[in-house]
UniProtKB/TrEMBL annotation:
Protein name: Protein ecdysoneless
Region (Disordered): 325-369
Coiled-coil spans in chain: none
Transmembrane segments: none
InterPro entries, per database record: Ecd
Pfam families: SGT1
Source taxon at top rank: Eukaryota
Organism of origin: Culex pipiens (House mosquito)
GO CC terms of this entry: nucleus
Amino acid sequence: GELYLIGGEGEEEEEELSFERVFRELKGDGRTRYVGSKAIQGCIEARIGEFPDRIEDSHHRTTLYVPVGVAAVLKENPQLVSAAVLAFCNRDSIDLKACRAMRYFPPESCVYVSVVFTKCLYAMLLHNSYLPDRRTGWSLPLATDPNYKAHVLGVKLACGFEILASQAKTSQSLDTDKGWKSYFESLSSKGYFQENIEGSQEYTRLLGIAKEYYQENKDSMRFTPKIGEEIVSILKRNDYDPEELRKEGLDLPSPDDDSWINISPEELDQMLTKRYGVRTLLSLNGNAPSPESFTAMMSEFLDRKSEFDGVDQDAAAVAAAELVESFKPTKPKRTKSKSKADHVPNHNHVQPPPLHAPIDFDPDAFGST
């Protein structure tokens, strides 16, 4: 297949194109008139040609040590792992209180499970620092233990599920809705109620508008009560056997190697070049200096001496001008009178010398009179 770019002309550019017009435009010479360039077609083919093989390559399987409740939730709906990771990485002080309580997923009974993440989610969870409270019941092995990573990642994921479950709405009343409380406080701090007295007619009107807007849009906000309700409903059904989950944890597939998460600067450059192409530092007229000459000019500029009575403005200005002009396109020459060219430097604004520039110091200048 090929990509065709069809657009209107003049006032028709803002009008929506109908299928009939599109098919009509593509007849005859329209196929060659509107077809995308080879560069565009090649870019699209390179991106879509990686699929479906890249789908498996973008996943990462690892072993986690989690509470049995988390194992039961993942077994019924493994897609909830993404919401749990995002909830944990975006936690706030209210969420941390839920993590200290671990009301829904107590850590007393844990099992090993095999979890599939996207590589992005795995990297987010791995590099998000968190130290669990031992008073909650978490017991981590030594960092040298081969199961240390499974325990740490399990704690983080369990906390993510705990945050989601704590946001489940057991009542439709906004009085017990933490999301509404946070939203209301945000409105108040931003002056939404316009200094109206609480209970007044205008205050009540604005409050009603805010409540209506929140109830209509709360699912798109940070708080995810529906996901939390699904998690809580799985736990309430209690149709999972902890002993069976423990036995399943004894026969798990081997975790994937996560060495891909550590790359060298050269590998990063190759990835960026492959994705975005080669980018070179060139000025508009193509006369940009080489890295070696640029370094030499910088060293010469910084090594210029500053005199006892201050910076040599002429020398510093010339060096700075040379450095700046090397990155600017060549401009056409302009005729100037000789009197204007020989201007007197402005000493009212003296720039400080470079920190490491040598200073000529004459001790005889401080002789007593």
